[in-house]
Amino acid sequence: MNITREALLERPLSFSSIKQFIRSPQHYVQYLTQERKQTDAMLLGSVVHNLILQPEQFNDKFAVEPEFNKRTNQGKEDYQKFVDSLTDKGIQSIPPSVFIKAKEMVTQLMSTPIYRYIAETDIREQRFDKNYESLPVCGYIDAMNDEYNIELKTVSSAEYSDIQRDFYNLKYHLQAAIYNWVNDKKVMYVVIETSFPYLSRVLIPSDTYIDEGRKLFQKAMTDFSYCLDMGLFDSGYEFYGGSDPMTLDLPGWAKKGASDDE
């Protein structure tokens, strides 16, 4: 892929882009250059974040769509006119169903003692810019107090075992390590389910959790510097030795089941 060193350094690294680089250099370049489409889950998460963290800015960012009959040509035309009227203002249209669900989730969270962790913060959506050696890193921390960097997450399930699995697969231990590196504060996750009754939970990563993320972060930054110096951003999985034959084995849980059957 033809991309210059200057272009690569023009955009600071972030949790999301580092996560892509860990897959392969090509995934990282694709992340920088592709047009990213917002999923329904991402839109719901954005609206919930805004209503909880910056409700005073809601009308500057979102507009709830009037009811259009999109099955008719007139309804489709009216809808498109509505969307076009918002584009120049940088405002995103949201379906009424998304707004209603987001309001229900926010109302539920605010009715619980958990909400105080966010309510008692006066620093919200805090951007950070910091260099890791010569590499620029940036990001946004949802909320912050004297002790914690607080991240708000919308999840399909807040069951502890599901959170453990999903957060690890999403590499949130990497995110927690990055945020801890920024200002030495502990990380707190406030999670809220996207299905009724919209239950919520608070989780604080252990030292082991942060240490694992820190190792991943440090290795990724070392590998990125090497990739940058050697001009290897056209590499795929072979950057991490992925061109060698691999043994395809059963996953751990299936192995256990197979051994139990013997």
Question: What does this protein look like?
Answer:
α2 (15-23) packs across α3 and α4 (40-53) crosses α7 (96-110). The protein has 12 helices and 7 strands. β6 (186-193) and β7 (200-203) form a beta hairpin. The strands form 2 sheets. A 5-stranded mixed beta sheet has the order 3-4-5-6-7. A two-stranded parallel ribbon has the order 1-2. The chain is α/β, with parallel strands linked by helices.
Topology:
Elements: H1 5-10, H2 15-23, H3 25-33, H4 40-53, H5 58-61, E1 62-64, H6 73-87, E2 92-94, H7 96-110, H8 116-119, E3 123-132, E4 135-144, E5 148-155, H9 160-169, H10 172-183, E6 186-193, E7 200-203, H11 207-230, H12 252-261
Parallel strand pairs: 1-2, 5-6
Antiparallel strand pairs: 3-4, 4-5, 6-7
Total of helices: 12
Q: Given this structure, which CATH class is correct?
A: Alpha Beta
Oligomer: single chain
Structural class: alpha/beta
Average pLDDT number: 91
Helix-strand sequence: HHHHHEHEHHEEEHHEEHH
Alpha-carbon Rg, integer = 21 Å
CATH architecture: Alpha-Beta Complex
Estimate the strand proportion: 15-25%
Quantity of strands, as a count = 7
CATH fold description:
Lambda Exonuclease, Chain A
| Span between termini | 50 Å
Question: What is the 3D shape?
Answer: globular
- Spans of at least 5 consecutive residues whose pLDDT stays below 50 are none
Q: How many domains comprise the coordinates? A: 1
| Percent helix | 40-55%
Largest sheet: 5 strands, mixed
**Strand order in the largest sheet:** 3-4-5-6-7
